[in-house]
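Q: How would the structure tokens look for this protein?
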Amino acid sequence: MSDLLTRRRFLISAGAVSLLAGCNGVHPISGFLRGMQEWNQKFQELLFSPRRLAPELPPSATTPEAAFPSYFISDSMPLIPDDWSLKVGGMVARPMVFSLDQLLRLPHTEMRVQHHCVEGWSAVASWYGVRLREIAALVGLSPDVKYVEFRSFDSNYWSSWDLASAMHPQTLLAYGMNGHPLYSDHGAPLRLYSAVKLGYKMVKYLTEVNFLPIQTGGYWENQGYEWFAGA
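A: Here is the predicted structure in token form.
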């Protein structure tokens, strides 16, 4: 059994404690369960390496798109606003607003990796877009930045990440999937995608990226789901 698989099974098992702790959205987790969640986060941060890459898979491993689950929290599928743009701000030297055409002109990358959901399923797709680290270089991060917050037009769904994971070479602002532009069910026109996080951390229908000095939360994280959520 590979070290990666052993680690992933451990993290899923440990994450289950966090999810059970967050099943009741009314009462915050506390005591022993909160301690376990904090311990699990610290353990994952210690295991994380900004240089470790998830294996890229052959085209034959691709999951048929009809079988690749998708989700959103809005009552109906979010559709691209006519005035869509991506706002990038926070503690940066040069706040910027990008159109999709501007993002398409930036250096792009493609990867075919396995997607892991906290519910236990996995799937494979090819994603292409611009590395988030390219955007960070354009806007110029303050030395005080430690976290990144992502927001969307899917009923304000949001999440936040540690900076190291956000700057990982396999973390993309993806505008394409399996050789075609993103469809609405997978987050068009732009979504966050990474090989180093579980699915609920990958914000779809992206509208804002904010570089921050403090850790914030997220739609699911504020209901008790694990914050670090490494894949």
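The helical segments are 3-21, 31-47, 100-104, 132-139, 163-166.

The chain has a mean pLDDT of 85.

Upvote if useful.
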